[in-house]
Write a structure and sequence with these properties.
Layout (H helix, E strand, L loop, with lengths): L18 E5 L2 E4 L4 E4 L2 H4 L8 H13 L11 H13 L8 E5 L2 H18 L7 E5 L8 H6 L3 H5 L10 E2 L19 H13 L4 E6 L16 H11 L3 E5 L23 E4 L11 E5 L1 H8 L15 H16 L2 H20 L5 E6 L4 E5 L15 H11 L2 E2 L1 E2 L11 E5 L7 H24 L1
Parallel strand pairs: 3-13, 5-6, 5-7, 7-8, 8-9
Antiparallel strand pairs: 1-2, 2-3, 4-10, 9-10, 11-12, 12-15, 14-15
Helix pairs in contact: 2-10, 3-10, 4-9, 7-8, 11-13, 12-13
């Protein structure tokens, strides 16, 4: 620990590498060492570092006006980006309206509040709870952590969390019911109906889910029928479906929004991270037509706003990132390179006795680490295997992300996440896979020996 620092870091036991610049898929530290950024910062840098078109757009905007308060006046970049997100929205959402903010937690908190307002405007004020899933993550505010199912982070804040129900995730590798797809009949999806009935549909405003589960489970992809069943249950009980696309959206999975892989339309999409590619903090709350129309036809006033929401500099960056993605065909490329990355991971890692599962969709991949491949027994939590693999890879020039432990039972379970920029090449895939394999073998073999 650097006792001379005035920064409150996340860990007092860690030494943090100081990154000074980036170029494409690489970042460089203050000693000149190069690292392949296979996590895009933290699933943020999607088009690569140092893209001149985005930098120029931001410079031009800053030279005009960098900030306006959206509660009093409007600005052109906000309108432009909202129009672009209408073009990107799934067709079933109709005429969308977008509320901008600074990040994913803000977007999901806004979704909670506006889902409640939607029901209140329609004469259903008791519909205030949101159902989430265990081993999910929607943000680190009190409200979004209440919706989340990340037990290690919930436990330390439990006295201040809201009383929101949760259901198990669609986690076929470790099915909570010891069933096998497809003979299981999608018990995991049907659990939503059971919890709605148990809680009382008159009390449930929304169901929130990451279409591809993020850092709490590292790229768990549900069975094909899952979201169709979820959509039907939400419609049956007048519940809004919120797709948390903070990580999986903006092209990462090979479609504009991950939920589109299942042909399902959400009522609300939340986005951040890759929306401005890391060039400026930006989040978005995209409301389907039926949601915002209920508010427009009711009170006519939106009961949520943020200071930096819709600021022109961030919105100019977001519009430039979307333009760059489209001009360079990066949504399709993310799908193609993701197929190559996941195939290479499967070929190189699944024969390792410490790798239980390789999974993902597009450039959103996860590797689950186990102490015993046959029984799927996780490593002891105190061994902190995931973060040791992360640190070893860093020493060898590769940035990977250790997912938060707890994916097995809320306590144990180590996993590694890979969410690189869409502009990676085959040579980068080879380096990612070979370096990660070596790190897993070194760390896990040493851990197993004690």
């Amino acid at each position: 620990m650097d006792r001379d620092s005035h920064v409150l870091y996340g860990s007092f036991d860690s030494d943090y590498v100081t990154i000074t610049r980036g170029d494409g898929v690489y970042v460089y530290d203050d000693a000149g060492n190069r690292y392949l950024d296979a996590v895009g910062g933290v699933c943020v840098v999607n088009i690569g570092h140092g893209v001149r078109e985005v930098i120029d757009a931001m410079n031009e905007q800053a030279a005009g006006i960098a900030y306006t308060y959206g509660g009093i006046v409007d600005n052109e970049p906000r309108r432009r980006l909202a129009r672009r997100l209408q073009e990107w929205a799934p067709p079933g959402m109709g005429h969308t309206r977008t509320l901008f903010c600074s990040g994913g937690a803000e977007a999901n908190e806004g979704a909670l509040k506006l889902a409640y307002q939607y029901h209140r405007e329609r004469g259903n004020p008791t519909k205030r709870k949101v159902i989430g899933r265990w081993q999910s993550y929607h943000g680190n505010t009190a409200a979004t952590l209440s919706m989340s199912g990340r037990t290690p982070w919930r436990s330390v804040n439990s006295p201040i969390l809201l009383d929101f129900p949760h259901i198990p995730p669609p986690y076929c590798y470790r099915c909570p019911w010891d069933q096998t797809y497809p003979s299981c009949g999608l018990t995991c999806a049907g659990e939503l109906r059971r919890v709605v009935r148990q809680e009382g549909a008159e009390n449930i405003a929304a169901f929130i889910a990451e279409p591809v589960i993020g850092t709490s489970m590292s790229a768990v992809v549900p069975p094909d029928e899952y979201y169709g069943i979820v959509r039907d249950i939400c419609d049956e009980y007048d519940i809004l479906f919120i797709a948390d696309e903070v990580m999986s959206g903006v092209g990462r999975t090979g479609k504009r929004w991950a939920i589109e892989h299942w042909g399902v339309t959400p009522d609300i999409i939340t986005s951040s991270k890759g929306l401005a590619g890391g060039y400026s903090p930006l989040g978005a709350l995209i409301l389907g037509e039926k949601v915002w129309m209920a508010i427009a036809d009711g009170s006519g006033r939106v009961s949520h706003s943020t200071t930096y929401g819709g600021n022109p500099l961030s919105c100019a960056a977001g519009a430039a990132v979307l333009d760059y993605i489209e001009e360079h065909g990066l949504v399709r490329r993310a799908g193609e390179m993701g197929d190559r990355l996941i195939a290479a991971l499967e070929e190189a890692l699944l024969d390792i006795p410490y790798v239980g599962d390789v999974r993902g969709m597009g450039l959103f991949a996860g590797v689950e680490l186990v102490a015993d491949k046959e029984t799927r027994e996780p490593f002891p939590v105190e061994w902190d295997v995931g973060h040791r693999v992360e640190a070893d890879a860093l020493r060898n020039g590769l940035l990977v992300l250790a997912g938060v432990t707890g994916l097995v039972d809320g306590v144990a379970g180590d996993h590694i996440e890979l969410v690189p920029p869409y502009v990676i090449e085959d040579e980068h895939v080879e380096f990612i896979v070979s370096t990660l394999r070596d790190s897993i073998l070194r760390v896990c073999a040493n851990a197993a020996r004690g």
